[in-house]
């Protein structure tokens, strides 16, 4: 691809970047958001395992009382829900932000809707 063929995007801070590089940057950022979302899911799963007293619970530690177990699980679910909601909002803002420059990084299944 020739340099003249690459579309240049002027950002609001008086700097320019090629559309190709901007798309790569946006996709990598989106991947990191999705990665963080995955880890929050994993944390939620681990809390559930601890709640049910299977894997990843420590049998050498003091056993939690029933009300403590329920409080911990509710706290984990609340944090998980809040963080995943923030991640989804950030992902949507990123997708809409780059869409204004003609770059579509939305997932295929989202485009079908």
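-> sequence recovered:
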């Amino acid at each position: 691809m020739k340099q003249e063929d690459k579309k240049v995007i002027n950002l609001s801070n008086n700097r320019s970047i090629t559309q190709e590089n901007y798309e790569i940057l946006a996709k990598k950022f989106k991947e990191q958001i999705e990665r963080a979302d995955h880890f929050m899911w994993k944390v939620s799963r681990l809390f559930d395992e601890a709640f049910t007293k299977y894997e990843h619970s420590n049998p050498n530690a003091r056993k939690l009382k029933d009300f403590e177990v329920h409080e911990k699980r509710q706290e984990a679910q609340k944090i998980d829900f809040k963080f995943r909601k923030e991640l989804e909002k950030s992902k949507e803002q990123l997708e809409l932000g780059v869409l204004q420059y003609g770059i579509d990084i939305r997932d295929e299944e989202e485009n079908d809707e």
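Helices lie at 19-52, 66-99, 108-111.
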